[in-house]
Amino acid sequence: MEIHIVADADAGAKVVADLFERTVRDAGDSGAVLGLATGSSPVPTYTELIRRHREEGLSFAACRAFLLDEYVGLPAGHEQSYHAFIRDNFISSIDIEDASVISPNGAASDPAAEAADYDRRIGEAGGVDLQILGIGSNGHIAFNEPGSSLASRTRVVGLTRSTIADNARYFDSPADVPVRAISQGLGTILEARRIVLTASGEGKAAAVAQLAEGAISARWPATVLQTHPAVTVVVDEAAASQLELADYYRHSRALESDIPLSTDR
Ligand code: GLP
User: Which residues are catalytic?
Assistant: First the structure.
């Protein structure tokens, strides 16, 4: 796991955008498969990638993308659906085909069948080349809440009270927050060839400390990322504030700055 402690969201966005740019350019005409996340954490990265598209000609035209998750019960057109979020915050402003950006259908009549089908479609696309993740304050990734099987596949999950409270800021009232979601499983996410997780703010500090330094456990689902050979974590000072080994991460990044990121860590 490679941990970058950065000064602010803009600095973090550049580190993450560099990984996306390299993935997209390396795939060339065959097209990278991108794993996209919602929530506020990836937005500065998306903004930076939009800038590179507009000002530097970075093209996503050959890419396909899969979202991590979707609320059950929200149709694609609902303004708080993740289908809408990723269009509003990223893909409408780049040159990827809209139909190439795929997410679980939260309005499916059989959400369990939709989840299984979604998992299968990711595999059929050849798997995800680069997956971006945020992290919940309780250590969830996508909507894999504490207690999730570390080998879980895409499925219907119930949201914890703390996640519903965290996400209520996007809705008119906490009662409007959906209580279930279709989420890629931890086992599904681990199949991505490279993963980058980004977090900022004090509220994420405990989860980030567990992610990097805690025992691997379903209590903190993000700890499963310790088993993946190519994970980059990009955090600001506040999110890094409970890391015991923060000084070492700073020091080792400086020593390794000339090692290409494609090297497994
Ligand atoms: C939601 C999403 C997660 C995201 C988390 C944190 O629960 N399902 O994918 O990581 O929120 O969101 P934020 O980045 O807004 O803190």
Answer: 69, 138, 140, 145
Residue given tokens 């299984």 in the structure block: 116
The per-residue pLDDT for range 79-130, each reduced to its tens digit, is 999 999 999 999 999 999 999 999 999 999 999 999 999 999 999 999 999 9
DSSP designation for 2: E
Determine whether 78 is exposed, middle or buried from the number of CB atoms within 10 Å of its CB (0-12, 13-18, 19+): middle
Q: Give the pocket of ligand 1 (CB within 6 Å).
A: 37-41, 68-69, 134-136, 142-143, 163, 167
Residue with CA at minimum distance from ligand 1 atom 5: 136
Phi, psi of 174 (to 5 degrees): -55, -30
Nearest to 7 by CA among 259, 207, 250: 250
Determine the residue type at 138: N
Q: 131 C-alpha vs ligand 1 centroid, how far in Å?
A: 14
Which pair of structure tokens corresponds to residue 252? 């080792």
User: What is the CA(29)–ligand 1 centre distance, in A?
Assistant: 31
- Sign of the alpha-carbon dihedral angle for 177, 182, 185, 189: negative
62 contacts 33 by C-beta, under 8 angstroms: no
pTM over 0.85: yes
**For residue 6, what are the β-bridge partners?**
236
Q: Among 210, 193, 15, 178, which residue's Cα sits nearest to residue 111? A: 178
State the DSSP code for 79: T
Distance between CA 168 and CA 32 in Å, rounded? 33
pLDDT tens track for 149-160: 999 999 999 999
